[in-house]
Structures are given as structure tokens and as C-alpha cells.
Amino acid sequence: MKVLLVNGSPHKNGCTNRALEEVARSLEAEGIEAELFWIGAKPVGGCVACQACRSTGTCVFNDSVNQARAKLAEADGFVFGAPVHYAHAASSLLGFMDRLFYADGKGGTQSNLRFKPAAAVLSARRAGTTAAFEDINKFFTIAQMPIVSSRYWNNVHGNSAEEVEQDAEGLWTMRQLGRNMAWMLKCIEAGRAAGIALPAQEPGEMTNFVR
């Protein structure tokens, strides 16, 4: 089993990465493979609703979004991490997730995110983590992804990776998040082995409020 951990910070080895590293170590201690993926330092724009992914299967903007999308099928779980900017998750990660989730849902016959456990991780110097936490979790709920929790909200505090080292409770929370993710993945695998099928999907109908 494998978890893809996405670093949505413009700083490859900053606070967010340090938090994700702690989650990864905990996962690996439980026998789960962990891969860290950095979205890069360049700005990542959001979806422009061109819907090209419906025919091409990939986002029209060929950047880290398509690189990550190629990794979705082999991952069994996901952790998306970001720093807090102006009391919300860093805009590059939100733009990245806008396009990744839309292309995954519209660019193929089968979603590679649906029903796979996911978690959000935030880093901040001081405040804004809970609002940013909500930003990321909303992606999971619309994609039918079980949300993995920890013993506290999944955040660390510090202005550098070295300062995060001083946040003992934050790192404790990251380690527990890794263990909880591993436990959920093993439960899902046991259910699959026992013949429990994924939830049925009905066709449904889109409802517009303006007629």
C-alpha cells in the first residue's frame, strides 16, 4: 500500500515538508510506502473551466498537476499539505487541487481519488490553520474520499523547519495521523479481501436553480 503526500508550499524543505516527513515516517513504520511530491515554487493557477480534460484526459496546462495525476492510480491514500497564507491554504495548492480534482473526475471513466482516504496538513507561524484546514477538506467530501483525522487538528507551528522541530505537540499529531491513515488503509484492504464492494453509484441528476 502507498500514500502520496503532496507538499503545496513554495518552499521545498520548509515547515510543511517537515510536517509531511513526520507523517511519512509514521506510515513507513506501519509498513506503508510513502512518497513526497512537491508542486514546485512557481505559481499554480486554478481551473479555467475549459473542459479540455474531458477529451484529453489531462489538464490543458501541462505542469505539476499532470505530473501528480499520473501518480494517482498507484496511491491508496493521500495527504495534502500547505502553509497558511492570509488565513487560508496557500493559493498554489488550492489551484493545484482545483485542477487535479476536476481532471480526475471529468478526464476519465474512473476516478483515481474516489473512496481513497485523505488528510489535510497545515503549517503556520501563528494563526489561520483551522480555516485553511477546512479549505482542503472540502475537496475530499465532494470526491467521496474518507477523511483521516488525528488526535488534534492536523497542523504544526513555526516560521522555519527548525522551529517546527520545537512544536512537540504538532509533530506528535503528525505521527498519529500517519498511524491513523495506516490503520484505515489496512481496514479497507481487509474489507476488500472479505468481499465488501465499493458503494454503488446512481446516475443522479444535476439540479440548477435558475430555469
Question: What would you note in describing this structure?
Answer:
Helix content is 40%, strand content 16%. With 211 residues, the chain is of the alpha/beta class. Strands 1, 2, 3, 4, 5 and 6 form a six-stranded mixed β-sheet that branches.
Keywords:
211 residues, alpha/beta, six-stranded mixed β-sheet, 6 strands
Quick overview:
The chain has 7 helices and 6 strands.
Itemize the secondary structure elements and their pairings:
Layout: E1 2-7, H1 15-29, E2 33-38, H2 53-56, H3 64-69, E3 77-85, E4 88-89, H4 91-106, E5 118-124, H5 129-142, E6 155-157, H6 161-164, H7 168-193
Parallel strand pairs: 1-2, 1-3, 3-5, 5-6
Antiparallel strand pairs: 3-4
Strand content: 15-25%
Average pLDDT confidence is 95
Our measurement of the CA-to-CA distance between the termini, rounded to an integer number of angstroms, reads 47 Å
Helix content: 40-55%
Query: What gyration radius follows from the Cα positions, in whole Å?
Result: 17 Å
What's the helix-strand series? EHEHHEEHEHEHH
Which class do the helix and strand fractions yield? alpha/beta
Largest sheet composition: 6 strands, mixed
**Discrete helix count:** 7
